[in-house]
Design a protein that fits this description.
The chain has 15 helices and nine strands. It is α/β, with parallel strands linked by helices. The radius of gyration is 24 Å and the shape is globular.
């Protein structure tokens, strides 16, 4: 590997890390002021945002230790056979960069991942060494998110959880068939077994903390994973089912969905085009339905078409309500919270406010309108004091009336 300076390494390894969605948000439009006019850019990389356990949005230095890898996962720009410029930090360089950026107030933490160098254990040792040095040698109190390598010695993964706030292990692809085809060197069983070990260590850490105040916390921000969407034949129903299974078995804090983006010099087994970003967005909405709205994976799948794909033009909650109109209208003055959560256009906060206010008076449509961005979306699905939708709920053109109008994009925007 040719010698390159720290700044060049940073450029290469921050760029290589942008494909990991575990702490990033995609789906925004591309804007960039680097040409001269204006200020800011949505396309830079190197610093991403994540939510701390207390809900604060924090900025993280997001880099790879190296983008060299002995594996050859077809969807990955860093795979062995990819023709990209390679770079590698030493653990000490990552420590210095993190501390420098932290002192300058650019970041509040570190997100560190890596290609696999030499072996899974060797790579994991290097990743752990960064976190150890930050915590033990420099008493770094900022946030640390480490990607762990499933094949690594469980003791190294355990150490990662001792130093990091969050650890994550990517399942990468939603189905075993997809993983076997696109990442044959990875083993779905080992990935799940590593997640299970991390779950057990988190639980043990919590138990110990209850008994001894001084017991060290283990990954207090929990574990997360990422799935690539659109690189294999998995349907939205497959993806939602897999996510639900992972939440149930390993009590993950988050599953991230990353729309596959065609990479330069890509393998012939991959699709040529990326899936619509809206697909990724609909999967995030489905994820919220399962985590906060009481939907099961099977119910989310009921909102999908016969091929298992969620509609792109309307959100999955609206799609479900349109398909199961017999559950509506819901009386906002009497219905249980769970039924109100099914109403399209009503979020968790709005429902909680409705439930709190109806103790004191009967709610009218205007009261609901104050809590939602679109009362037009809510009206067909609720009853309130002085309001019944009568035939509106069953109208055959209701879907068309509630489908957001397509916006004409500016040709030169
Ligand atoms: S192991 Fe990770 S870095 Fe290496 S090719 Fe596979 S996805 Fe890319």
């Amino acid at each position: 590997m040719a010698q390159i300076d720290l700044q060049q390494k940073l450029a290469v390894l921050a760029d290589a890390a942008k494909y990991d969605a575990s702490c990033a948000s995609s789906g925004t439009s591309k804007r960039d002021s680097r040409g001269g006019k204006g200020i800011g850019s949505t396309e830079g990389m190197g610093i991403c945002h994540a939510y701390a356990p207390d809900g604060r949005c924090i900025s993280l230095l997001k880099i790879l230790l190296t983008n060299s890898c002995i594996f050859d996962c077809a969807y990955c720009i860093n795979r062995k056979s990819s023709n990209v410029r390679r770079a590698r930090f030493t653990p000490d360089e990552v420590v210095r960069l993190t501390l420098d950026f932290y002192r300058r107030n650019y970041i509040e933490g570190l997100f560190l991942s890596s290609g696999i160098i030499r072996s899974s254990d060797y790579t994991m040792e290097q990743i752990v060494e960064v976190a150890r040095a930050l915590r033990d040698d420099h008493h770094f109190k900022g946030y640390i998110h480490l990607k762990t390598i499933p094949d690594a010695d469980p003791e190294l993964v355990r150490l990662a959880g001792v130093y990091a706030d969050r650890v994550s292990i990517n399942v990468e692809l939603p189905t075993v068939a997809g993983l076997t085809r696109l990442a044959p060197e990875k083993d779905g069983g080992r990935i799940e077994s590593a997640m299970k070990d991390v779950r057990a260590a988190i639980d043990e850490g919590k138990d110990a903390k209850k008994r001894f105040k001084s017991a060290p916390a283990f990954a207090p921000a929990g574990q997360s994973t990422q799935m690539i969407v659109g690189a294999d034949a998995a349907t939205d129903s497959d993806i939602v089912g897999r996510a639900s299974n992972l939440y149930d078995r390993f009590r993950l804090r988050r599953v991230y969905y990353s729309a596959f983006s065609p990479i330069p010099d890509s393998s012939a087994v991959l699709p040529l085009r990326r899936p619509p970003l809206m697909r990724e967005h609909r999967l995030y909405q489905s994820d919220w339905l399962m985590r906060f709205y009481g939907f099961t994976a099977a119910e989310v799948a009921q909102a999908a078409d016969p091929a298992g794909m969620l509609p792109l033009d309307i959100d999955p909650k609206l799609a479900w309500a349109l398909r199961f109109r017999e559950h509506f209208p819901v009386d906002v003055n009497r219905a249980p919270r769970e039924a109100l959560l099914r109403v399209p256009g009503l979020g968790v906060k709005a429902v909680d406010k409705l439930v709190a206010s109806r103790r004191w008076r009967r709610l009218r449509l205007d009261d609901v309108a104050r809590l939602t961005a679109s009362i037009a979306k809510v009206r067909p699905f609720i009853e309130a004091e002085g309001w019944r939708p009568t035939l509106l709920t069953d109208r055959s053109d209701l879907a068309a009336r509630l489908t957001p109008k397509r916006e004409q994009l500016e040709l030169f925007g």
